[in-house]
Amino acid sequence: QVRLVESGGGLVQAGGSLRLSCTASGSIFSINVMAWYRQAPGKQRELVARIFSGGSTYYADPVLGRFTISRDNAKNTMYLQMNSLKPEDTAVYYCNANIIYWGQGTQVTVSS
Fold first, then answer.
1. What is the torsional sign of CA 98, 102, 106, 110?
2. Are the C-beta atoms of residues 107 and 11 closer than 8 Å to each other?
3. What are the pLDDT digits (tens) for 13-70?
4. Which residues contact 12 (CB under 8 A, 6 or more apart)?
5. Does the pLDDT value for residue 105 go beyond 90?
6. 62, 55 in Cβ contact below 8 A?
7. Fewer CB within 10 Å: C terminus or N terminus of the chain?
8. How confident is the model at residue 51, as a pLDDT?
9. Rounded Cα–Cα distance for residues 20 and 10 (Å)
10. CB–CB of 97/80 below 8 Å?
11. Which letter, b or e, does each residue of 11-33 get, where b requires 16 or more Cβ atoms within 10 Å of its Cβ?
């Protein structure tokens, strides 16, 4: 079992930056892949970025070049650095591990 806790959301103006954190506990040795998803009101949850245990990453097209995913294994923490934020980035952001484990979500609101 893996427990995930996100932090770092908030309200920011367009063009600003935020950094989300996700700290894992429990059976962390079993984690092969971690990811950030987001869900905007009235929309389906979508993949934002993914990072594998070997360090390789994937980004969805809407965030490519603006967001950076990383992980600090010593701290059991994954990050999402979000720059040049746009109003369309407004959503609840969720941390995910091994596809099946989810955090509770953190709200990101970008004002125009």
1. positive
2. no
3. 999 999 999 999 998 888 899 999 999 999 999 999 999 998 999 999 999 999 999 9
4. 18, 85, 108, 109, 110, 111
5. yes
6. no
7. N
8. 97
9. 10
10. no
11. ebeeeeebebbbbbeeeeeebee
Alpha-carbon gap, residue 104 to 3, rounded angstroms: 10
Q: Which is it for the CA torsion 99, 60, 56, 74, positive or negative?
A: negative
Q: What are phi and psi of 73, to 5 degrees?
A: -65, -30
- Residue 28, pLDDT score: 83
Q: In this structure, are residues 37 and 48 in contact, taking their beta carbons and an 8 Å threshold?
A: yes
| Bridge partners (DSSP) listed for residue 53 | none
